[in-house]
Amino acid sequence: MDIQIDLFINNLAVERGLSVNTIAAYSSDLMHFQNYLRESGISLWREVSRGTISGYIQQLGPFFSPRSRARRLAALRTFFRFLEKGGLIEGNPALLVHFPKLGPQLPKALTAAQVESLLTQPDSAKPLGQRDRAMFELLYACGLRVSELAELQLGQVVLQPGYLTVRGKGEKERLVPMGEQAAECLKTYLEDARLKLLKKGFIPQVFINTRGESISRQGVWKIIKTRARKAGITINITPHMLRHSFATHLLENGADLRSLQVMLGHADIATTQIYTHVARERLKEIHRKYHPRP
Questions:
Q1: Residue 287 appears among annotated catalytic residues
Q2: For this structure, is 275 an active site residue?
């Protein structure tokens, strides 16, 4: 069974060109399912039935959200489709298993005031402050995913006229403008703090940790949470909330969906359209709060 998983993971990387993080998620989901099969006495993929998969998804219930269970089922459908195409099984048993019901989940965005508090919290007179300010500015000004920020390389940065060549999901490239403030903060970091943090030979990644190595996604998460707490932001903030804020604030100020889709790197505009719902909800909230007849 391990061999088929290895072949599938290789297919995701080579044939479909999925990102490292997506491939890692598929691998983790399949290994978890394989452990369940072993505990159930199933040793061959062709022995897996619809009931097997339904039982697996149901037993995840107490420990995983409906969205997480849906993601695992989607991974199983993709894997069994791969086995079916390869002639290893005669049908896809996951196709007949229903997805858990998902309630609407709107992206959570920060207010403009919260964004400003976070961006200005780092002390730009210190190397780490310059680095963190530059990271936060790019996350918000360019709507980057945290993985795109951590993997950003020097060759992808053009300070004049100010844009990034971002490699997103599926290694697809897109050009994203930075804005003057973000470009200036990044320029300051590159010419000063980065040189002080870099302790060994050449490293292509833009952002460096305190050990002189390229920063990790987890490192960015910890930094944002720490800085947000110091800035007095009490909500549970994540790097992705700056991407959501980028999209929501652009829409609120008149940006069109097509342009936003390109900047976010969404393959389907339907994914981008969810931000219109966020903007509407924000308007409703303002109306309820300030109108004399709510």
A1: no
A2: yes
Q: Is 169 annotated in the active site?
A: yes
CATH 1.10.443.10 positions along the chain are 112-197
- Residue intervals of the chain classified under CATH 1.10.150.130 are 1-86
| CATH fold of 1-86 | DNA polymerase; domain 1 (1.10.150)
The residue annotated as part of the active site, out of 71, 225, 240, 282, is 240
HEC string of the chain equals: CHHHHHHHHHHHHHCCCCCHHHHHHHHHHHHHHHHHHHHCCCCCHHHCCHHHHHHHHHHCCCCCCHHHHHHHHHHHHHHHHHHHHCCCCCCCCCCCCCCCCCCCCCCCCCCHHHHHHHHHCCCCCCHHHHHHHHHHHHHHHHCCCHHHHHHCEHHHEECCCCEEEEECHHHCEEEEECCHHHHHHHHHHHHHHHHHHCCCCCCCECCECCCCCECCHHHHHHHHHHHHHHCCCCCCCCHHHHHHHHHHHHHHCCCCHHHHHHHHCCCCHHHHHHHHHHHHHHHHHHHHHHCCCC
- The active-site residue out of 69, 133, 194, 243 is 243
56 in catalytic set? no
Catalytic residue among 145, 167, 194, 249: 145
| Residue 266 designated active-site | yes
Taking only the tens place, the pLDDT of each residue in 223-280 is 999 999 999 998 888 888 898 888 888 877 777 778 877 788 777 777 667 666 655 6
Name the catalytic one among 169, 174, 217, 225: 169
CATH 1.10.443.10 holds for 112-197:
yes
- Catalytic residue chosen out of the listed positions 26, 56, 189, 275: 275
- pTM (predicted TM-score): 0.63
Residues 266-291: pLDDT tens digits?
Answer: 777 776 676 666 556 655 665 466 54
